[in-house]
Amino acid sequence: MFASIPNFKDFWSEWDTNRKLECLRLLNEIVCEFDKLLSKPKFSSVEKIKTVGSTYMAAAGLNETETDYDDDVYLEKQSHGKFNNNLRIGNTAFRNANVMIEFALAMSQILDGLNRDSFQNFELRIGMSVGPLVAGVIGAQKPQYDIWGNTVNLASRMDTHGEPRKIHATTDMGNILRAGGYRVQSRGKIRVKGVKEPMETFLIEVDSKRNSSVSGEQTNNHNNNNNCHHSTL
Amino acid sequence: MFASIPNFKDFWSEWDTNRKLECLRLLNEIVCEFDKLLSKPKFSSVEKIKTVGSTYMAAAGLNETETDYDDDVYLEKQSHGKFNNNLRIGNTAFRNANVMIEFALAMSQILDGLNRDSFQNFELRIGMSVGPLVAGVIGAQKPQYDIWGNTVNLASRMDTHGEPRKIHATTDMGNILRAGGYRVQSRGKIRVKGVKEPMETFLIEVDSKRNSSVSGEQTNNHNNNNNCHHSTL
């Protein structure tokens, strides 16, 4: 997931150079409030990757092995190629997608609260995708855990091509969410840099979601050494 | 300074998903070799900020106070508005610009060596600017020291608008380098996003620079609490 605050840039440019530090203090407050969500048990599977400017990058399911996804294949076979809500709810991909959506909604609520306190009008624009990626630590000085791959690039592009107060999801992510009972709105096929064919993407309103029956709480937390993951971000 | 390896992307996309980890290992080796430069005494004023993908971000002079630049103003007045090599060499702005150039050249030499060992053809494309910026630490989870401001944006854009094996510098940075005796090549005026008027930028060849008489070695390392800096990156 890439969650950015596009109108933070306007706020930033309104201030003189010697007042920029105050803008940063507000950004720090926002990011620290988002960070607090990570300690909630329901978001135990969410990993913050980093912030880049006013963009918050996080992923769910990074600690899962590929065998965790075998259940998904079994369930998909059971449903004979059709999406079946009962069967798919509870599978790994949906569980991660759901927790990521819940996290984005919680971020949005936090931002609304901070807006009221600081008389601002910041809005979140969120991009999400699901799929395999590579994770690792780069560098000797200031080493940083990061993630790479097409799934990561797609999530970033869903953010940049997205709309304020909406979650913009890839085809795969949208299908998983729809199968799980989320109200997703097709945006039709759009051209995305790095993808040959135009792809169908989906928008999820931040304000009008169904109350998920799946809590997204996860107790399995494998500490494996396998750096190849299939994750939701 | 933003130093990126544009053709790392081609290398990355040549490999299957399950071989991406090997690409990352090579990137890690490159970044770790760049990191080793930071421990050299001549680069003691260089601060690595972070890597973003295959882009290495660093700055010089972050620990200097604004009063360190008073000498610059005095020297500029002495030279009656004209650039005067003798007077300007040794001033703070040039010293930082020079050390940043030396750092970029050292990075380039390291990459050439790694290319020979790994039969690759990676090239550095470098963007630089000079000016005021804001620095600070953002976030409670995975807090990261970072820098912000127009100077930072300009350096990044010099990189993206640059050419392989060349350093692309802003007007101010180019003037400082030229005054210090560097052979800089004007690229004419180009339009840069975020800057109203087209700006003259300069290219410095990575392979054919003069041997600087200024070592760039710095012994003053103020640990001040002032987070507003005038830096070279």
TrEMBL record, chains A, B:
<dbReference type="InterPro" id="IPR018297">
    <property type="entry name" value="A/G_cyclase_CS"/>
</dbReference>
<keyword id="KW-0547">Nucleotide-binding</keyword>
<keyword id="KW-0456">Lyase</keyword>
<dbReference type="GO" id="GO:0005524">
    <property type="term" value="F:ATP binding"/>
</dbReference>
<comment type="similarity">
    <text>Belongs to the adenylyl cyclase class-4/guanylyl cyclase family.</text>
</comment>
<feature type="domain" description="Guanylate cyclase">
    <location>
        <begin position="1"/>
        <end position="159"/>
    </location>
</feature>
<dbReference type="GO" id="GO:0035556">
    <property type="term" value="P:intracellular signal transduction"/>
</dbReference>
<dbReference type="GO" id="GO:0046872">
    <property type="term" value="F:metal ion binding"/>
</dbReference>
<dbReference type="GO" id="GO:0004016">
    <property type="term" value="F:adenylate cyclase activity"/>
</dbReference>
<dbReference type="GO" id="GO:0004383">
    <property type="term" value="F:guanylate cyclase activity"/>
</dbReference>
<dbReference type="GO" id="GO:0006171">
    <property type="term" value="P:cAMP biosynthetic process"/>
</dbReference>
<feature type="compositionally biased region" description="Low complexity">
    <location>
        <begin position="220"/>
        <end position="233"/>
    </location>
</feature>
<keyword id="KW-0472">Membrane</keyword>
<dbReference type="GO" id="GO:0016020">
    <property type="term" value="C:membrane"/>
</dbReference>
<dbReference type="InterPro" id="IPR001054">
    <property type="entry name" value="A/G_cyclase"/>
</dbReference>
<protein>
    <recommendedName>
        <fullName>adenylate cyclase</fullName>
        <ecNumber>4.6.1.1</ecNumber>
    </recommendedName>
</protein>
<dbReference type="Pfam" id="PF00211">
    <property type="entry name" value="Guanylate_cyc"/>
</dbReference>
<keyword id="KW-0067">ATP-binding</keyword>
<feature type="region of interest" description="Disordered">
    <location>
        <begin position="208"/>
        <end position="233"/>
    </location>
</feature>
<keyword id="KW-0812">Transmembrane</keyword>
<keyword id="KW-0115">cAMP biosynthesis</keyword>
<dbReference type="InterPro" id="IPR029787">
    <property type="entry name" value="Nucleotide_cyclase"/>
</dbReference>
<keyword id="KW-0460">Magnesium</keyword>
<keyword id="KW-0479">Metal-binding</keyword>
<keyword id="KW-1133">Transmembrane helix</keyword>
